[in-house]
């Protein structure tokens, strides 16, 4: 196995930005989007049932699956996005979008990439992902509130059955038939 030197700000397994670096970049990106009057999508990504892979096939194979998943997500999102491994099987990304529908297209592409079998040492592993989407609108909340909305959306994706994305709650009216989290009285 190749050992990599530890670099501050990078996750040692995937070489993606870690949580600290991601949060710093998110703060700068939100500030930049505000200045440019643009929208930013935050995607919080959880690989479903990764604990079962580690328990059944071992941590070494599980780590290799995580590295492959990180590579797939990075290729899917492209160079204009910032992708990070926050911890364990939790990833986050942000990128500039035109609207919620554009963010949903990126999330759908990520789900497809994650669903493809991971073949490592002749062992096929199938995973799914749950994704929460929060879109920062010009004049909207700060990075911490945006992240909290993304976490609530991720929880909704999991509650609704995993292997899906949830694009809410959205600040203001939805730009399409997507349901909101508002309770009906």
Description:
The protein has 185 residues and is of the alpha+beta class. The protein contains 5 helices and 7 strands; from the N terminus they run H-E-H-H-E-E-H-E-E-E-H-E. It has helices at 19-36, 50-57, 59-77, 100-115, 143-159, and strands at residues 39-47, 82-87, 90-97, 118-120, 123-125, 129-136, 164-166. A 5-stranded mixed sheet has the order 2-3-1-6-7, sandwiched between helices. Strands 4-5 form a two-stranded antiparallel ribbon. A hairpin with a 2-residue loop joins strand 4 (118-120) and strand 5. Helix 2 (50-57) runs antiparallel to helix 3 and helix 3 runs antiparallel to helix 4. The N and C termini lie far apart (58 Å).
Question: How is the topology of this model organized?
Answer:
Elements: H1 19-36, E1 39-47, H2 50-57, H3 59-77, E2 82-87, E3 90-97, H4 100-115, E4 118-120, E5 123-125, E6 129-136, H5 143-159, E7 164-166
Parallel strand pairs: 6-7
Antiparallel strand pairs: 1-3, 1-6, 2-3, 4-5
Helix pairs in contact: 2-3, 3-4
How many whole angstroms does the radius of gyration measure?
17 Å
- Helical region count? 5
Number of strands: 7
**Regions with little confidence, pLDDT below 50 for 5+ residues:** 169-185
> Describe the biggest sheet?
5 strands, mixed
Structural class: alpha+beta
What's the rounded overall pLDDT mean? 89
Distance, first to last CA: 58 Å
Shape: globular
- Helix/strand order: HEHHEEHEEEHE
Tell me the β content: 15-25%
Strand order of the largest sheet: 2-3-1-6-7
């Amino acid at each position: 196995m190749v050992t990599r030197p530890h670099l501050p700000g990078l996750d040692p397994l995937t070489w993606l930005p870690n949580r600290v670096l991601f949060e710093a970049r998110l703060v700068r990106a939100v500030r930049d989007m505000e200045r440019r009057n643009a929208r930013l999508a935050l995607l919080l990504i959880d690989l479903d049932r990764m604990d079962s892979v580690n328990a059944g096939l071992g941590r070494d194979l599980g780590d290799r699956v995580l590295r492959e998943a990180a590579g797939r997500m990075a290729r899917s999102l492209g160079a204009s996005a910032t992708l990070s491994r926050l911890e364990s099987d939790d990833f986050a990304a942000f990128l500039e979008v035109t609207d919620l529908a554009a963010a949903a297209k990126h999330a759908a592409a990520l789900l497809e990439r994650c669903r493809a079998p991971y073949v490592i040492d002749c062992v096929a592993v199938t995973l799914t992902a749950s994704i929460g989407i929060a879109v920062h609108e010009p004049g909207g909340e700060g990075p911490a509130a945006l992240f909290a909305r993304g976490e609530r959306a991720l929880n909704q994706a999991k509650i609704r059955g995993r292997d899906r994305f949830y694009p809410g709650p959205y600040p203001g009216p939805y730009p399409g038939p997507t349901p909101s989290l508002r309770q009906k009285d």
